[in-house]
């Protein structure tokens, strides 16, 4: 059974914004781009562990919470979908421009507790960036984990993010299986048209040794968590990362609570068993 540590691993003061600069921008889709940022003197904005969050924005327009989607020795990457006021501004950034970054916030994926287990990553659309750091951790420490499956879906093939990793890099990793589907507009070579949940049962998983990591919209979350339960994967072995509207990131503004839990402090990573208990409260 997996128990997620709900400890904050951050050192220093994650409330203090740092002025950083954009060093690289990757266009993922028509409304999603990834932004690599580093401090003005070329350093890492903050240390993070897979699953943690950061505030990223532009003064004076505002800031938003994002999962760190990747990290290097001296940079962090956020993958941002353009949905409203601040994310529209972020999408207008150019390399070299200054931004504000603060963090890390929240708990993290239980990478240690999952050692020795088969890993099933399930993501929809913009749900892939939050699970990518966990997947990358498993691939970087390949001997520590069993079979790895990624089941990723988006509305159309144009809405798939991280295409190079999806189609070229990850399928060539040992004992790693990448399954991609879209709901419409498929070119027949790169993906199939399918809903995700029915597909899971055909993967032939050893359910007693599988941990599922799930991140997507409400419909994907609902149908897949039900399918995983039907397959016999225990609620303690289904992990998810929750999103609520956030402001402070430190449990003070009261924007992100579900019952007595604050997503910014107690999450964003929870087991399905914890989510069920929160919804009952
Ligand atoms: C824990 C966490 C992790 C996140 N990780 C990512 C990520 O990796 N990549 C990414 O692109 N986005 C992520 N988000 C969502 C991101 O924070 C919002 O899209 C962003 O704050 C929107 O700001 P805006 O000013 O552009 O939108 P606004 O102008 O404030 O709103 C535009 C529309 O988006 C809706 N909206 C705004 N925020 C949210 C939210 N948090 N959840 C659902 N709907 C929202 C509003 O209701 C409105 O309909 C995450 C959010 C949280 C809380
Ligand atoms: S974001 Fe303020 S309490 Fe969670």
Write the layout of secondary structure elements.
Elements: E1 18-27, E2 32-39, E3 53-58, E4 62-72, E5 75-81, H1 85-90, E6 98-105, E7 118-124, H2 128-140, E8 148-154, H3 163-169, E9 176-182, E10 192-193, H4 196-200, E11 210-215, H5 218-231, E12 238-241, E13 257-258, E14 261-262, H6 263-266, E15 269-271, H7 272-280
Parallel strand pairs: 7-8, 7-11, 8-9, 9-10, 11-12
Antiparallel strand pairs: 1-2, 1-6, 2-5, 3-4, 3-6, 4-5, 12-15, 13-14
The protein binds flavin-adenine dinucleotide and FE2/S2 (inorganic) cluster.
FE2/S2 (inorganic) cluster is lined by residues 246-249, 251-256, 262, 264.
Q: How would you portray this structure in words?
A:
With 281 residues, this protein is of the alpha/beta class. It has 2 domains: 18-105, Translation factors (Elongation Factor Tu (Ef-tu), domain 3, Beta Barrel); 118-241, Nucleotide-binding domain of ferredoxin-NADP reductase (FNR) module (Rossmann fold), CATH 3.40.50. Helix content is 21%, strand content 32%. It has helices spanning 85-90, 128-140, 163-169, 196-200, 218-231, 263-266, 272-280; strands spanning 18-27, 32-39, 53-58, 62-72, 75-81, 98-105, 118-124, 148-154, 176-182, 192-193, 210-215, 238-241, 257-258, 261-262, 269-271. The strands form 3 sheets. Strands 10-9-8-7-11-12-15 form a 7-stranded mixed sheet, sandwiched between helices. It is globular and about 50 Å long. It binds flavin-adenine dinucleotide and FE2/S2 (inorganic) cluster (FES).
């Amino acid at each position: 059974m997996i128990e997620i540590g709900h400890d904050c691993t951050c050192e220093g003061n994650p409330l203090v914004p740092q002025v950083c600069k954009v060093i690289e921008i990757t266009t993922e889709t028509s409304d999603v781009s990834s932004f690599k940022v580093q401090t003005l003197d070329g350093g890492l904005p903050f240390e993070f562990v897979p699953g943690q969050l950061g505030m990223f924005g532009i003064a004076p327009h505002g800031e938003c919470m994002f999962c760190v989607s990747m990290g290097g020795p001296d940079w962090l990457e956020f993958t941002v979908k353009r949905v409203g006021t601040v994310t529209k501004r972020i999408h207008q950034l150019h390399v070299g421009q200054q931004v504000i970054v603060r963090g890390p916030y929240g708990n993290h994926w239980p990478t240690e507790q999952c050692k020795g287990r088969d890993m099933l990553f399930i993501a929809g659309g913009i749900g892939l960036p939050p699970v990518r750091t966990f997947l990358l951790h498993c691939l970087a420490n390949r001997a520590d984990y069993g079979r790895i499956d990624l089941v990723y879906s988006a509305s159309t093939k144009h809405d798939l993010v991280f295409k190079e990793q999806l189609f070229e890099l990850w399928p060539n990793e040992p004992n790693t299986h990448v399954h991609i589907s879209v709901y419409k507009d498929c070119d027949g070579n790169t993906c199939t048209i399918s809903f995700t949940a029915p597909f899971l049962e055909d993967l032939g998983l050893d359910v007693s040794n599988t941990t599922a990591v799930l991140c997507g919209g409400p419909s994907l979350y609902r149908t897949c968590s039900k399918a995983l339960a039907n397959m016999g994967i225990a609620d303690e072995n289904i992990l998810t990362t929750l999103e609520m509207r956030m402001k402070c990131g430190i449990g003070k503004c009261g924007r992100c609570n579900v019952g007595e839990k604050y997503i910014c402090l107690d999450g964003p990573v929870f087991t399905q068993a914890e989510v069920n208990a929160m919804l009952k409260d």
